[in-house]
């Protein structure tokens, strides 16, 4: 872990040096031109804009040149603490840079306005992508690059925390790194007051500093009309946006309607304002008619698919379905959720449930405890923030909860309708009982009798090796691939192939459960190597096939990510520095046994293709990570983390829940990576396996 963290720091330093080089590149010709009769900038302007950049480059070049050979010649007792201590002792140069930063930005802006040639230079600065790709560069502007040192110094303690976490107390580096951390923390506390406002306004391209906490489609009431909005809650503000209409294959874009800093936001209860707008109600009959229409369109789509009609007809129906779903979302909510800006402006949302409204209030209030200063964004900063929402959004499709749905047959006859709802209160006492407990739920004049029994996690989730090693379920993946002479188990390839053939547009694929008897039948067929398994699969519901694939990974005697590496993945995903995290996670992944790695890469590519159909199947990368994370990572041997007293309620914040969150985050991290640099030979093996 120490080596991987340091490898990440090296990669981060390399990127930072390329950014400083990009700043230095125009500096030399600008200085030379300053002594001619036609200068672009004066010597004083150049000195102000590029103040201390050469010195920062020399400091970090020396650090990089010292660290690289030590990481390459790695040993457990290798020492690097002296390099970090020296780097920390030179933070005074950053003090000078930060003090001058505001003046530098102001001077650069004025020079761009006064000189078109300098404005052109400022917008087209090129930084090397990496050390080995000398011809590959990325375009940056002057403002972005001048902010890099500010961002760098404010994150200097993160890498030291990561490194200290994996340096044993008895190691010679430990004291040196602690000293470097102390110097860095003292330095940061002295300049944080000046840097924080700038960090809040510069987001936000990747959400590194201003983080997205929650987003959702909501209905805003504007002058009596219902308007569909996408609302984003960040760590310091609430942003309300409108999704622009897409045309000609253009990428998704948002328009900002308004924003409120959390320090200026308050909640306006329904009876607090006489001027509160009245909510136009929609009759239940109208809502029912919309739901029936949606059901009819869905039936039409399925009929077109079965008839193998052209994709144009299906696309038209899908467009009509999307319009009807949007209309239903607009018309359904009727519960007011009002937010008020300190400047006097109020906004009203309509929400479907009191639970959802309470959740938004709770999330905002919790975050307000951490916000102390008001601020305002410039038009450029607001545009940057709005643009970032396209990548940051977690909700990609309109959420529809169609309760009281009449499911209509083609002849228009209503077959099903929800008549009532009820719930059973789980008694902590039931956790101590081993027998079935009978209970009755009363709802809308109907009594539902059922039996429930509690099974603790240690039994329900424990991985159990199969006693029958000739099958595939419960058998180590390396044993199966060796027996089959394949790179990826036959069961994985078959299930993926069938799902990609007819299940990619199935709503809730992998989330919706299949019929248990079908899954068990497929399990038995795969275990005995039944030659008719492909015929069986073609006749079964696709959710049963998805369930069989999940069951296979869940019943592996050791998780796909292995027991040996599981703690390392959990530590890697918790690293603070993003470059160190990427280096560590990729190194760990490529250290997996070959059968595990190739199977995971095969599955990963498949899940990414599933997520590409998210607008239809409603399965985002996050949804898929939630389903598969624990399945692929949960260790085989794990002691129960239930409370000592089984009568105590199980808290959702217990360590087991945190572990599950970590498992989801690990898989989500790999799903979101654009490319995983697996060795070519292994990639070819995967392709070969797929073709076979």
Automatic annotation (TrEMBL):
Residues 1-194 form the DH domain. Residues 211-369 form the PH domain. One of its GO terms (molecular function) is GTPase activator activity. It comes from the Eukaryota. CDD domains: RhoGAP_Bcr, RhoGEF. Keywords: GTPase activation. One of its GO terms (cellular component) is membrane. GO terms for biological process: intracellular signal transduction. Transmembrane segments: none annotated. Residues 475-669 form the Rho-GAP domain. Pfam families: PH_19, RhoGAP, RhoGEF. The keyword Translocase does not apply. This is BCR activator of RhoGEF and GTPase. It comes from Phyllostomus discolor.
